[in-house]
Specification:
Helix content: 25-40%
Strand order of the largest sheet: 1-5-4-3-2
CATH class: Alpha Beta
Number of strands: 5
CATH architecture: Roll
Number of helices: 4
Number of domains: 1
Largest sheet: 5 strands, mixed
Distance between the termini: 44 Å
CATH topology: Nuclear Transport Factor 2, Chain: A
């Protein structure tokens, strides 16, 4: 697939996530999708994606991601994004703080035959917890 086709899939994915439409997001995944960054104890495929997004949207119902940079290398597309939201729900067992949070993240997708087959992610969890007041600055 071309770089432009991969970017179009990324844009559809990000649009679905920002609309809080997890089902549209996973429609872009292959049946054997693997999330290499799934949190411990979570399933690694579509089910894990749905669980992780449910946790995120419960904790930050107004969560939104903006794309800062996109890099395409063959069948992989990566981007740096900024996430924002207000912590009005529990987050991994931590009660809501009502505080706004802003963080950076990096996500890499491998796309094959028009479907997302593999994903990796890294994000500033430490910064999120500091802004929520869970750990000291």
């Amino acid at each position: 697939m071309s770089a432009e086709e991969n970017k179009a899939i990324l844009n559809k994915y990000m649009d679905a996530v920002n609309r809080h439409d997890a089902m549209s997001a996973i429609s872009l995944f292959s049946d054997d999708f693997m999330d290499r960054s799934a949190p411990p104890g979570m399933p690694n495929g579509k089910e894990g994606f749905l669980m992780a997004h449910q946790i995120l949207e419960t904790a930050l119902p107004d969560v939104h991601f903006s794309t800062d940079k996109i890099v395409v290398d063959g069948d992989k597309i990566g981007w740096v994004a900024t996430g924002t939201g207000t912590n009005t729900g529990p987050f991994f067992g931590i009660p809501a703080t009502g505080k706004p949070v802003k963080w950076w993240g990096v996500r890499i997708l491998r796309i094959q035959n028009g479907k997302i087959v593999e994903a990796w992610a890294l994000f500033d969890m430490f910064g999120i917890l500091q802004q929520m007041g869970i750990i000291p600055s």
